[in-house]
Amino acid sequence: MSVRGQIIYLAEEVYKLERYSQCQSCGMTFDKEHKKFIAKEKNGSDSIYCTYCYQDGEFIEPNSTMEDMIEVAVPHFTEKLGNEEAARKYMTKVVSGLSRWKK
Fold it and tell me: Whole-structure pTM over 0.85, yes or no?
């Protein structure tokens, strides 16, 4: 790859990391603690998805719906937020804004 090509590639990767601070399927935050969970694309570049949702350039659950994703997350956030209704409302707001689920 040429120097120009490398610069363009790195700029695209930085843009992606700045633009996507969370998994665009489940909403996991890619903070300092969770950066290790950023999945890789088939070409080795960082994905916009986490390793729980995406591996080797493909979704682990390709037929999953937005509603399925919310249901998986609700128990975890019920524990954090104190009740199921608050967790469901929060996750609906978060997940509906993610790239994978935007229509």
Answer: no
CA distances from 94 to 27, 40, 59, 73, 89 (A): 7, 23, 19, 11, 9
**pLDDT on residue 23:** 94
Q: Dihedral (C-alpha) 12, 13, 15, 18: value to the nearest 10 degrees?
A: 180
Sign of CA dihedral 67, 103, 100, 43: positive
- Rounded distance between C-alpha atoms, residue 80 and residue 18, angstroms: 27
Q: How far apart are CA 49 and CA 8, in angstroms?
A: 21
Radius of gyration from C-alpha coordinates of the chain: 15
How far is the C-alpha of 25 from the C-alpha of 66, rounded, in Å?
8
Residues ≥6 apart with Cβ < 8 Å to 67: none
Q: How many CA atoms lie within 13 A of 87 on its CB side?
A: 16
Question: Residue 89 CA to chain centroid, in angstroms?
Answer: 19
